[in-house]
Structure formats: C-alpha cells, structure tokens
Amino acid sequence: MKENFDAAAYVAARQQMINDALAAEMDKATQASPPGQGTERLLAAMRYSLLAGGKRLRPLLFLAAVESLGQKREEELAGYLPFACGLEMLHTYSLIHDDLPAMDDDDLRRGRPSCHKAFDEATAILAGDGLLTHCFCCLLSTPGSSAVQVLQAAQYFAWKAGLGGMVSGQALDLAAEGQPLELAELRKIHASKTGALLEAAVVCGGRLVGSAGPQRQALQEFGRQFGIAFQITDDILDVVGDESKLGKPVGSDAANGKVTYVSLLGLAGAQAAADKAMTAARNALQPLGEQGRLLSALADYFCRRDN
Ligand code: GRG
What we know:
By secondary structure, the protein is mainly α. The protein has one domain: Farnesyl Diphosphate Synthase, CATH 1.10.600.10. Helices cover 71% and strands 1% of the residues. The chain is built from 14 helices and two strands, in the order ααααββαααααααααα. Helix 1 (7-32) crosses helix 4 (81-99), helix 9 crosses helix 10 (213-240) and helix 13 (261-284) runs antiparallel to helix 14. The longest helix has 28 residues, at 213-240. The structure holds geranylgeranyl diphosphate. Geranylgeranyl diphosphate binds at residues 54-55, 57, 91, 94-95, 97-98, 103, 110, 166-167, 170, 193-194, 231, 234. Geranylgeranyl diphosphate is lined by residues 54-55, 57, 91, 94-95, 97-98, 103, 110, 166-167, 170, 193-194, 231, 234.
C-alpha cells in the first residue's frame, strides 16, 4: 500500500468493479432463468434491491483481504469477483427480508422504497430467496482458488450467515423486542446479526488465498472488532445522521423503542465504545504487518462514514 493511499478513490474503484460484476451476474442469471411473467417480476425485484447502491462493504473487505494477504494484482481480482458478488447478494437478501412488515417493517432502503413497497410482499420474499440461493451459485463458481479452498470458505460463510451468525442473531433480536437489554446481551445480538457477516467476509478472503493459523485468527479478531465499531456507528447515525445521505429515516430506533448502544451508553459513551473497538480492530492486524494496512485503512474509512 502506498504512503499517500487515497481510501476514497480506492473504495470508489472497487465499488465500480463490484457493481459491474453484480450487473453482469444478474444478466447471466436472467439469460439462464426460465422465461415468463413471473420470473421477469422476480428478477426485476432482485435487480431493484441488489443494484440500488449500498456501500458494498462486505465484498470490499473480502477483496481487500484477498488483495493484501494473497498479494494479488488488481487484474487478478477478477478470479474472486464471483465470491464477492455472492457476499453482496446474501447481504441484500437480509435487508429485503428485514424490511418486511413481519420483521422491521421499513418503507425505505438505500434511498428508495423497500422491495415489498416497490413490488409486493410475496415478490419481496421471493427476491430475497432468489438472492440467498444464487449467492451459493456465485460463491461456488469462484475460479481464483482451488476447489477445496472455495468449498471450505463457502461452508464457513453459510454457517456465519445462518445458524452460526446472522439468522440466529435476527431470531435473538426478535425475541428481545420490548425487553430491557443489558449491554452484554446487546453485544451478543449484534455480534451475530451484523458482525458475523463482516467477520466472515474478511476471513473468507484470507482463506481463499491460504491464510491459516495466526493470520486467520488476526483476520477473525479484526472482523469481530470492526463489526462492533460498525454497528455502534450505525446506531449513532440513526440519531445524528442526515436522512438524505443515509437513504432512510433517522430516529427510527428510538421511535421503535429499540435498545441501542446510544440508548444504553449515550452519544458520547457510544462514540467512546466505537473508538475502543476500532483500536482493538487495528491492534488485531498488527501481526500481519504491512499486509494488514489496507484492511485497517478501509475500517477507518467506514467508521468515519456518514451513511
Ligand atoms: C432477515 C435473516 C435476516 C436478517 C437480517 C442484517 C440484518 C439481519 C438486518 C439489517 C438491520 C440493520 C439495519 C442492521 C444495522 C447494521 C447493518 C447491517 C446495516 C446495513 O448494512 P450496510 O450499512 O448497508 O452495509 P448497505 O445498504 O450500505 O449495504
């Protein structure tokens, strides 16, 4: 990584690469799907949510791990884009389902009507299902690494996205609704619901380029701590953020009576907790030396975000 590294320019270039790959993947899937009115509507809803912007944080972290730990040149990243696309598909499915009336019941996502508002509930459920399942078609078609490495990374990701992480976290969150929560319980919910995918994105990047042992542990701890800092920043932005930049209303956590880091710690306390987690994330990367600098710069960039 160069001394005068420009994080904003790096992120913009990688986001472009990821967006192009996602659009190409959806074109390919459209060509291969059985034609008809039903699939046209399903694919339109999948595209609507997937190609609606978003920070592309999980694929960015994944590619950064591949790039720095595997010492890959930019042109070699093409071999890892299917995996990156799969990560974003799974994340987008979780947002579509989370916005449904039976879950968080949110009308806005990524600056426009959420999927079930733009289409209808049944189509939004199917669009989520389509993205969740197509994620694994993408992950398993990653040509950059050996078949064994790809299988092991995909299995790890499936666990973290499901019972070992996000889906269980969502279940814990639903069960906690309306209950008084302690900080430790809140951390546990978010470590699964939000943190597990972020952690898995980094670890899978490392696994695909052969990182193991202490390297893998460093990535895991970095992902875990960054996940905490990211979630706290999300809670802070829900209080002090700008709706036009966030693409969703601010104040929704308080309006829905949600326990957050801000409601438990206050704004200053939440900021201090985010800073502490970021320091721990940077420290976790120390054993990687120069190879940890890109991930550290990305984490800093996204914890100073305004959306
Ligand atoms: C429905 C199984 C299921 C799970 C949903 C991730 C999740 C679980 C719900 C999202 C709720 C939420 C807003 C959590 C806060 C942190 C978070 C994951 C924010 C959204 O991720 P970003 O900021 O979104 O990366 P973009 O749009 O930039 O991709």
